């Protein structure tokens, strides 16, 4: 069962998402909050698989809420998905940098919304290849905080290959098909690479892949 926390200051938005989610047999809405502060408290109480968080809210906004969730070891299993009205903008970039696994535009089609929840729950980032390209175009122009090439040398050849495929926007299943391995093995390669590179999620792994020179910018 995928356990979801809804955090949005608009009751109509929350009720709409809840209505979509609660008819699914494998998804459960465990709590709702109207601001980031209450959302954080509920995340600590319920430990959801997914926290759907609006990016602009009173008291504590979505970026700060994401940052606090990412920094809390007890919430390591919570995947933050940012909700936005405007698509890929400065707020979303900051949320991804803060630790969000991806983002959804609020006018998304219901079928795509449900698919996205399941994608995020299994640990894949919500970054389509086109979004990955925009993300990288933004980040590779900035100097890395440390030399990612040093950490990259700690990866095995198969882990490096998996990271390169993540950077192309592939899911674990697609990586498995490309590398001719099982999805479980693909996920293991990706997870080990994330641990070695100290990347919280696949979005950060993509950035490191480009900054290290593993991928051509």
UniProtKB/TrEMBL annotation:
Q: Gene3D superfamilies, from UniProt?
A: 3.40.50.2300
Query: Where in the numbering of this chain does the HTH luxR-type domain appear?
Result: 148-213
Locate the 4-aspartylphosphate modifications and list their residues: 54
InterPro entries membership = CheY-like_superfamily, NreC/VraR/RcsB-like_REC, Sig_transdc_resp-reg_C-effctor, Sig_transdc_resp-reg_receiver, Tscrpt_reg_LuxR_C, WalR-like
- Where the record annotates domain Response regulatory, the positions are 3-121
- Specify whether Cytoplasm is a keyword of the entry: no
Q: Which UniProt keywords apply?
A: DNA-binding, Phosphoprotein, Transcription, Transcription regulation
Q: Which PANTHER family match?
A: TRANSCRIPTIONAL REGULATORY PROTEIN NARL-RELATED (PTHR43214:SF24), TWO-COMPONENT RESPONSE REGULATOR (PTHR43214)
Name recorded for this polypeptide: Response regulator
- Can you name the source organism? Paractinoplanes rhizophilus
């Amino acid at each position: 069962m995928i356990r979801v926390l809804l955090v949005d200051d608009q009751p109509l938005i929350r009720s709409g998402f809840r209505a979509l989610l609660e008819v699914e047999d494998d998804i459960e809405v465990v709590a709702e909050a109207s601001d980031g502060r209450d959302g954080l408290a509920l995340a600590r109480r319920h430990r959801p698989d997914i926290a759907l968080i609006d990016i602009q809210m009173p008291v504590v906004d979505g970026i700060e809420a994401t940052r606090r969730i990412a920094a809390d070891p007890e919430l390591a299993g919570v995947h933050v998905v940012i909700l936005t009205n405007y698509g890929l903008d400065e707020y979303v970039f900051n949320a991804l940098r803060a630790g969000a696994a991806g983002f959804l535009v609020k006018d998304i089609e219901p079928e795509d919304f449900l698919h996205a929840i399941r994608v995020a729950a299994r640990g894949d980032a919500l970054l389509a290849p086109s979004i990955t390209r925009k993300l990288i175009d933004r980040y590779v122009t900035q100097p890395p905080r440390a030399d990612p090439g040093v950490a990259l040398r700690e990866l095995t050849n198969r882990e490096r290959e998996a990271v390169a495929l993540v950077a192309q926007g592939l899911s674990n299943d697609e990586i498995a098909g490309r590398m001719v391995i099982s999805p479980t093995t693909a996920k293991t390669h990706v997870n080990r690479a994330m641990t070695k590179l100290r990347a919280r999620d696949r979005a950060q792994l993509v950035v490191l892949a480009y900054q290290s020179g593993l991928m051509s910018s």
